[in-house]
Amino acid sequence: MLKRRAARTAGFTLIELMVTIVLLGILLALGFPSMMTWVQNAKVRTVSDSLQNGLRLAQTEALRRSRQTVFSLTNSTSPDTSLTAVANGRNWSINTVQLLTDETAQFVESGVLSSVGSDVQITGPASVCFNSLGRLIANPGTGLPSGASCTAAAATYIVSSSRSDRPLRVLVSLGGQVRMCDPARSLSTSADGCP
C-alpha cells in the first residue's frame, strides 16, 4: 500500500522571508548615505543650471534689445514690482537698465533658484551687467535696481551645499561667455573642468 504525502503548497517560509527582509535592510543602510549625497549633488547641478540659463538669457536680451541689461540675484518673490539685489539670493531677475531720463527700465524675466535646492548656497556678485554687445560692463549704479552694482571684472558664482561633495562654478568672462564647470576637474583633462 502506498501512502500519499501531503502536497506542500508553494510559497516562502517565515524564515526565508525574514532573511530576505534583513538582507534588504542591510543593503539599504549601506546605500542610503551615497544616495543622499547623489540627491544633494543633483540639487547643486539644478541650481547651477538655472543660474547659468538666467545669465545666458540676460546676455541674449542685451543683444536682442541692443540695450544694457542687468542680471540680479534677489530674495524678492515678485521682482517685477519690487527688486533689491542681494548676494546669495534665492531668485534671479533680468531688467533693462535706464540710462537716459526719457527711457524706462523694463522687467524682462525672473527665475527661481530655491525651490529645488533649499539648502544650496550661491556665492558671487549680486548683479552682473551686459552691454548691447553681450559683454560685461561696469555700472556703479546708474539706472540699476536697488542694491545692484556691476563691475567690468569677470564674475564667478560658486554653487555648493554642506551635504554635497561636488560644488560647481558658473563663470562669466569679460567677453560674455557663460559656462558651468566642475572645480574638481582640470580644464586640460576634461571639457567641463575649471580653468
From TrEMBL:
Gene3D superfamilies per record: Glycoprotein, Type 4 Pilin
Alphabetically ordered keywords of this record: Cell inner membrane, Cell membrane, Membrane, Methylation, Transmembrane, Transmembrane helix
Membrane topology note: Single-pass membrane protein
Pfam families associated with the record: GspH, N_methyl
Domain General secretion pathway GspH: 49-176
InterPro entries cross-referenced by the UniProt entry: N_methyl_site (IPR012902), Pilin-like (IPR045584), T2SS_GspH (IPR022346)
Main location class: membrane
Family: Belongs to the GSP H family.
UniProt protein name: Type II secretion system protein H
Naturally occurring in which organism (per UniProt): Variovorax soli
Upper taxonomic lineage: Bacteria, Pseudomonadati, Pseudomonadota, Betaproteobacteria, Burkholderiales
